[in-house]
Amino acid sequence: MSDRLDGEKSEKVAWRSPRWLRGPRPEKVPGFVGTAGAVVGLLNLTAGVFPRFRHSKMHALAEVLPGAVSQLAAAASIVVGILLLLLAHGLKRRKRRAWVASVALLPVGLAAQLVYRHSVFGAVLSMALLVFLVWHRKEFAALPDPRSRWKAVANFVVLGGASFGIGMVIVSSHPHKTIGSPSFWDRTQHVLWGLFGFEGPVAYTQGVDYTVGYSLGALGLLTLATTAYLAFRPEHPVARLTDEDEARLRELLERHGARDSLGYFALRRDKGAVFSPTGKAAVCYRVISGVMLASGDPIGDVEAWPGAIERFMEEARAHSWTPAVTGCSETGGQVWTRETGMDALELGDEAIVDVADFTLSGRAMRNVRQMVKRIERNGYETRVRRVRDLEPEELARIQAAADSWRDTDTERGFSMALGRIDAQTDGDAVIATAHLPVPEDEQPGPYGDLKAMQHYVPWGDSGISLELMRRDRSADPGMNELLIVAALQAAPDLKIEQVSLNFAVFRSSLERGEKLGAGPVIRVWRGMLIFLSRWYQIESLYKFNDKFRPRWEPRFVVFRNSRDIPRIGLAALQAEGYLELGLPRALRRTKGAEPRPCAHTASRSQSSEAVESAA
């Protein structure tokens, strides 16, 4: 007994090395290395750009910092510094190629310090980072991100501009060793010629012209080399939904599509899909800015969801993507958090109208009833049909009108938009149209008597989800209310029992904040949401949905940790089309082989139209 206790005691008091000797925890190694690489890169870049430190009071400090300030060493310092800064983010994301590049660059910087600067301490710092990288090499195994060769154009523009700016600083950082007083245009010419390896009009004394020339040449070579690498490296296209994946998803939706109103949106062509080992469930996603963003609940059998979620997380780990889910239901959020350990936050509520309970009578529906009656008195007619029942010519005219009536330069939508109107693949979808007969003495417009349209995608066998709302700007206000009412009234004939309308972000906060007795925190939060509604129509969409007295179903966003929320929000804005970080429009490549999408906003309504309707 005493021997056992002594043994246990000896294990408890066993000596452990201090935390600072053991180094960072394995999960924090990439972040630590990325930060260290950025610091070393910044010091190299600063030392190369400002060589005058060598002859100032900072000389003693510069002797112990990585980098070099003389001629060839200055050029090498600039190149290594810029590349380490560019690779820092890849190191934080455990990218294997970033690790390989850093391991190759650090010896170059180390050799420059020993040969040209004789800086033993600076070489030791570079060697320490190199050894640390090699020691933890197993932590850097993430695969490359989806990419295209058009990033080479962006690299040439961005890095070329940065090289020109750094070059201007280098040329102007020797005012006391410049012959004469060169003008700004002279310095500009000197930088431009120097980037291509030629002498410019600015002259220096004491050998500074060699330092400036080598540095400018190194910047130009760096821009050219990285652009060439991006242009000729193997292309990894963004994940797209293959025909086989779409067929498998349609089989799952046929059996389990009634469970989630957002399920049909998994068939967007710009999404990828991972399936469970049994093939009975799938998670659809899109990768944006390093975020692996899934939308809605997994497709398929709930019991098979954990297998699909596990595959999703494995894919995220393999590429070092940030996993996230937007717009999942409460059941989906519970499964996601249980299986992955992630957290969930209520994002908003989805408005669902039960057809059997819908009526225009009563005081609560007076505004909608009066608006619909007024429009009908003005001569408008409505038609609600399955997409497969439309003639090809009429469907083409509706598609053309929807594109023409779009009020944004880019198509919007991701989690709650399908992105197309197709009678062959989506024949069960429903289209509601509003028409105003054209008098015989007037010339019809390009779309005939068509004035507004709405597109609904299937939600199982007995439901539909609103996907698209468009109208002619010359039409009377209230077209959206008119068509929603028409769709609800025609639903019984189409054997539809429930209709999913728009998604209201932070609806519960807006509702609680305006009630009597609301606390100061919720009132301040509601005020912030109303302020943001000037750009994103948060409040107006909630009020628009509330007109139809729906039942509200909460939707959630699932995330790994709180510090990922800004990044996930940025990726979601890009996915929904509210924010673009790509190439300028003039440099974009159009893809004529793909059908033009017809998606709309994340809330499944035209924002400006909802504002007008809510008013």
Quick structural gist:
One of its GO terms (molecular function) is aminoacyltransferase activity. It is found in: Cell membrane. By secondary structure, the chain is α+β, with helices and mostly antiparallel strands.
Polypeptide structure, described:
With 615 residues, the chain is an alpha+beta fold. The chain has four domains: 26-54 and 65-139; 146-232; 243-352 and 507-580 and 596-605, no CATH class; 354-366 and 378-503, Aminopeptidase (3-Layer(aba) Sandwich), CATH 3.40.630.30. 47% of the residues lie in helices and 14% in strands. It has helices at residues 2-12, 19-22, 29-49, 59-62, 71-92, 96-117, 120-135, 151-172, 184-195, 208-232, 243-256, 305-319, 330-340, 366-377, 392-405, 479-490, 507-513, 520-536, 538-546, 565-576, 607-614; strands at residues 272-275, 281-288, 291-295, 299-300, 322-328, 343-354, 381-386, 430-435, 450-458, 463-471, 498-505, 551-559. Strands 1, 2, 3, 4, 5, 6, 7, 8, 9, 10, 11 and 12 form a twelve-stranded mixed sheet that branches. A hairpin with a 2-residue loop joins strand 2 and strand 3. Helix 3 packs antiparallel against helix 7 (120-135) and helix 5 packs antiparallel against helix 6. The longest helix has 25 residues, at 208-232. The protein is elongated, with a radius of gyration of 31 Å. It starts with a helix and ends with a helix. Mean pLDDT is 78; it is low at 1-23, 52-69 and 583-615. InterPro entries: LPG_synthase_C, PG_lysyltransferase, tRNA-synt_2_TM. Residues 592-615 are annotated as: Disordered. The chain crosses the membrane at residues 29-50, 70-91, 98-116, 122-140, 152-171, 212-232. It is found in: Cell membrane. Residues 250-558 form the Phosphatidylglycerol lysyltransferase C-terminal domain.
